[in-house]
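Lecture 7 notes: from sequence to structure.

We start with a single chain of 293 residues. Read the sequence below before looking at the structure.
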Amino acid sequence: MSLSSGDQTLPKFTFRHIEDKVFPFIQDKEVQEYFLKWGLKDYLTAQLFVFDQPFQPYEHKTLLNDFMSDPSIYFNLKIHTSESWTTLGQKAASINYDFVPCTVMSLEFFDRLKENRLVHESGHISKCFDDFFEDFIISDELRKMLLIEESENYELFSESEKEEFLFRLFKHICLGGRICQFEDEINPYFNVIKKMYRDLVSVVKHSETKELKIISCIYKITASMFVLQNTKVCTPQDIWKLSDQLGINSTFILHEWRLVFCSVFFFSFMRGTELEEGRGGIILESLPEEFSR
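Now the structure, written as tokens:
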């Protein structure tokens, strides 16, 4: 879905950046040690923004457009260039977004890795002969399943399951950054994504049935920016992209309408000296009256 930010009407939603909000997984010492080991530490961030206007789920298009057009966003929203973290610094020329399903409630979703012997009962990941794909070294059946279409396990997860937010996080973590010391056991990956998923996604309980429900709606966003050269505005160029062929760079925007906040999760992947296309998204959450936190 594409949105244009050229509309001159007054925005319905205005946003404020909460600078002192730090997500628990960002402060978690063990998680940060793994991020460093996997080459993710300097290429991943999460931010919080709030707004005061009432919101209904059907207004998500308006909210996304206003979000990317708000000065509080483009002067504070962090992106990673080939050198360092910076901010957008300007209003987006155009915005594309895709809905990201978020329905998985448990890590039992990955039980099939053991059932199909990609992972042993001990937790050790099955090894394979070394192979290469793009800039990735593939030394185990897990990475092979994630990257190689010819792998006998490539279809272990359906295309719709691979769209799930939890699977996307899992893929980010398992593949790591440009310099990645990957794991021989699966549990470190599971422990980290469990903490990230818990911090980024909201779950509520029905007051009578005690049913658990995810109220987060997630959007992956792609923004095109006008590039300034010698104070002259040039043709729009995609200098901040939030999706790529492998799906290993991302920004996710998470929004909870009742508590009126948006969380932004951004991850970029470096290859050589070039910055791969980044990804991002927005998570929108609606909380019916019969549910409670």
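The chain is about 25% helix and 30% strand. Keep this in mind for problem set 3.
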